[in-house]
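Journal club side-thread
Mid-discussion, someone asked how the predicted structure for our own chain would compare to the paper's figures. Pasting it here so we can look after the session.
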Amino acid sequence: MSEPVDDSENAAPTPEEAPASEAPPDAAVVEEEVGAGAADAIKQLGLGAAIASLGYVFWIVGAMEMVERLAFYGVKAVASIYATDPVSKGGLGITPSQYGDITAVWALVQSFVPVFTGGLSDRYGYKETIAVSTAIKICGYILMAFFPSYWGFMVGAIVLALGTAVFKPGIQGTLVNSTRPENSSMAWGIFYQTVNIGGFLGPLVAAYMRGHFGWQQVFFVCVGIIALNFLLLITYKEPLKEERLARQKAIKEGKLKQDNLFADSIKEIKKTHVWVYLAIFSGFWFMFNALFDVLPLHIKEWVNTEHIVSDLFGPGGTQNSVFKFLLGMNPEGTAVNPEGMLNLNAGLIMVTCFFFAYLSGKMRATTSIVVGTLLATLAMFLSGYSTLGWLSVIAILVFSTGEMLSSPKFNEFIGNFAPKGKKGMYLGFSQIPVGVGWTLEGFIAPRLYDAFASKERFSKELLAERGMSAADIKAIPGGEAFHTLVKFTGEDHHDLTRLLYESHDIGMMWTIMGGIGIISAILIWQYGRWFRAK
């Protein structure tokens, strides 16, 4: 072709011409052939056929994501606990609101950087961007280890977020380019299940390391874990690499025109079905991230997990090291740590996600997302209902079921309607609602927790009521107010927790989150109807 052509407008090959590993056809072609809602209703292969159709590259990227998540959740699952733990225990001794500032910046960087760098993976190679991101993430964990302060953790979180932002489009772009529309539902479900092996083990490793060796060792272990991805990269082969290189050659020769990456991203994101989709899902991710950012702190301060241990092992707990590790228990074997409780989420996903992927494959993508959102919303209401450990278990399992029906379908859906050659870019776009929701949640949710559920503040108020001087209360180190209350009053810590819980509206924060979930489900349902009628 002698005249330059805009590559983004090229039509995809017909189904007969495209190889089996080809990415899904351009969304415009799909709409022309089978209607605008095609990405919401692609017929999926059966369970066995879908699993058998997944190639070698799919399993490699699953392993790399598993390793990355193991290290990431080794920190993320315990971040609120580390931040609010007193300095005497190796923590930062800061308030939930101060931790919220860190979380908001973390979310902002991790979620919005891929919006404009996702296309870099498409243009310069997935393998290269994955390698660079791994090196950046190592630097983030090292900063956290060597600088145990508010600003040290803030800078470490920013660097870690930058590495994650570069990592995601390369991994997810590889997945999209190594699957077909007919097996994409199962592929995303199994991918989600595989990486949750890392999500399951990470918090357990963190619980063991902090319980036996201290907080600094948690970060060092994460450095060693993420470095394993350099070994996996040796076996990695980028799908459709020849096509990418041929496109770059044609661009250099002037046969194809390549838009400025920023301008190209803006042009795509201005499409109505794209920006509306991204706007609606911001509410979903606001509600979703509260479970991971605030629930560990809620469990630490208000939920009695000793009853779970006594019901399972008897009044004395257990000294079995295997059970203590797998359940994320304290060194004494008498209670389940918050990260152990939250780990039920990854554990259930790890074991059952293939089944829910099959189940969600029988529904339209937006229908599955709505059902999942409503289940996650129910879990929000349950989380603040009481201090019972078993009720918290039920809430986490309900949330996990909702997550499996909704979260994988979000990426699958946007990956299916992304134009050919722009999968990494669109998967970068998918971080916009994550970024908006998570950034707002990271800033707002810890402050809501401070307002409605801060055990530290409530303990100081009760100390004042019981006669402690204002000067002595002011002198209490950060994170140690409740411990001081127990010593000052001589009362049982469970009785004092129950008193504080019953005299304050602890569940209000979770009621607010549940309300946002309901609104999100309604908007997603409306979008699904509009998209199919488009």
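Post-session note: Confidence is low (pLDDT under 50) at residues 1-41.
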